[in-house]
Amino acid sequence: MHADTASRLDADILEFMDACLQKEHPKSYLIAVLHKIQQRYGYLCQSHMDQVAQHMQIPTAIISGVSTFYHFFRLQPRGKYSISICLGTACFVKGADKVLDAFRTELGIELGETTPDGLFSLESSRCLGVCALAPVVTINDKVYSKVNAKQVPELINTVKTEERV
Amino acid sequence: MKDINLIIDDQPVVVAENTTILHAAEKLGINIPRLCYHPDLSLEGACRICIVEVEGYRNFVPSCATPVSEGMRIRTNSPEIRQARRDLVELILDNHPRECQICERDGNCELQNLAYSLGVRERLFEGRRKLYDIEKSSPAVIRDAEKCILCRRCVRVCMEVQGVTNLSQLYRGVDTVVAPAYEQGMDESVCIACGQCINVCPVAAFLENSSTDEVWAALADSNKHVVAQIAPSIRAAIGEGFGLPPGTPMTGQTVTALRRLGFDAVFDTNFGADLTIVEEAHELLKRLKTKERLPLLTSCSSGWIKFMEHFYPEMIPYASTCRSPMSMLSVLLKTYYAKRTGIDPQNIVVVSIMPCTAKKFEAERREHQSPDGYPYTDIVLTTREFIWMVKSYGIDFARLPEEDFDSPLGYSTGAADLFGTTGGVMEAALRTAAEKLTGKPLVDLEFTQVRETRGLKEASIEIAGHTLNVAVANGLNNAKTILERVKKGDKTYHLIELMACPGGCIAGGGQPYPPDGHYVLDPEIARLRAGALYRIDEAKTVRVAHRNPFIEKLYKEFLETPGSAVAHKLLHTTYLPREPKGIK
Ligand code: SF4
Ligand code: SF4
Ligand code: SF4
Ligand code: FES
Fold it and tell me: Full-prediction pTM beyond 0.95?
């Protein structure tokens, strides 16, 4: 897991937790709290989850269980280059799964993870509405269309070369 | 409550409303196979091994989770049911290592037994194997996720019985794994090392961190003087490892077995227990006099102590500063005994046979190392590990002659034997405290009010015009309850005995897996084992700790008086708040 450099949670998030604690089943707001933290900081780090545990008096094992169960929680910060593969129906039919596999092998990470050098992270997206261009991959804001698995190493190399200059 | 009539395997039976099919069948002597179910834990309904056929139902139903209803007709063993159960077990086996011959649980594994009894005789399909490293960070409990079958018994016992909630199911689907938060090592987690997850695990996914190799090596080293000590509860449980009924006392045979294995001397943790009582009673009387730091909380359960440090650091000032009986005896072995025999303490290897995995953790604590930096207790073996060593050495344990412990650190009073069961430390302390308060020998020695505690018991005891409010708690969820009462302050408590394991050390995390006809954490086993200890106590002539003649002599020769400076230096310890902080 990623090393934690994280700070204290922002005051408004602490206030949000306090508000949840006033409600009838405070612990059922855990997912909402984690969502808020991910929105703010981009991912859930151990220190933030520990703070939630102490603040809401929910054991860390439970929080860890919830944060690893749902795919929408990220447990590592995004890489400098965030690669997103569309797994909508059109892209899938055109072989997006093979493209995803190629990224996984090439980068040695799974969906939701970040390479140890912090350069790349991998995620999937739902239909981007450009199905004619399927399969679609975005790297940060750049859209790549009709990507096939064979092009993946080259794509990664291009980014790396740009990064060096 | 309404009676319900139903028919199981053609036999009519009447049970109370809300009984489950599984229990109704048990009433008829029908044992439906099961895996995730445990009578003392919440219902999981995860494995479906316990399925039965109910007439008129389209699907098989899990009998552990389905209540009976009027007129139900149930089959537990139709060919279809038997096939379906076999399929379920085969599915589990498909991604389970094929390692029975080299597995710690070979021969007493619930999965192995189930596969055998259901008639799985071939493996048709190899599923995706889970690949994990064995997690060995803790000196007490190791986790082998490759063998885990996701029944969640460990998760439940850790949460519902121990109130620790160290374990949870992480990730999902084929990646699901049971682990502490963030998949951190057990030694970085809030784990209190009690070993109850080992006890309830049906397979070898949780085990003690084994030390048998170190013991063999020490025994083979002629430069080492290797001595053993055995905890009170060992004698009451060890026989089960050799096919004897629970509650068969085997003190003398255990001593003989240790000598045959090559130990140079065999001592009794009981001596440490007597000494603990003398020191602890002194502490209690002092606090009663000054009315300070009450209640006194007992300190012999290493799991409870670690729990206090993570979850109740604010209670540290109330805990007795006495080391556990094991550590007290180990200290004496490396000081008093070393001096008497002229053996360099660095060459003495103290091996403790304990019912407890948390004692492995305790032995490594900095507080229990000598000023020169060597540990007082070198190696801790669980009862299970010791049973294995005896078997491995070809010793016919059940038929061994009985031998006596070495003197003087092997002599003990009946009070010491009681340490092995819940309520026992309390009773032993009350015996000594009563004699000290009244200044007279006690006539009625037995404090039955504090015996046979399932969970939590309170009592008020009248001694010489004093009313002592006492409580006994086992299983740390019950410790939470009583500590919260103490904090609320509605009542003054004077002495509270706390033991981490449900039933006390007799049901410790290192005790034998239950024999046929019993289940894990079966209160009946605990009762039988405790019975053995009560009988040993009754048969002894000296039953009050401070009247152990060798303890009196020890104070004269070495320790001066209870609570003296030298006693403090050697027999007492300190505690510290621990990270991560537990959630109560
Ligand atoms: S846990 Fe049981 S089934 Fe698995 S390898 Fe060990 S003995 Fe065999
Ligand atoms: S040893 Fe005890 S505290 Fe630790 S995980 Fe197992 S049951 Fe929980
Ligand atoms: S570790 Fe053992 S008790 Fe826990 S879920 Fe796995 S198989 Fe069940
Ligand atoms: S024993 Fe009934 S579902 Fe597991």
Answer: no
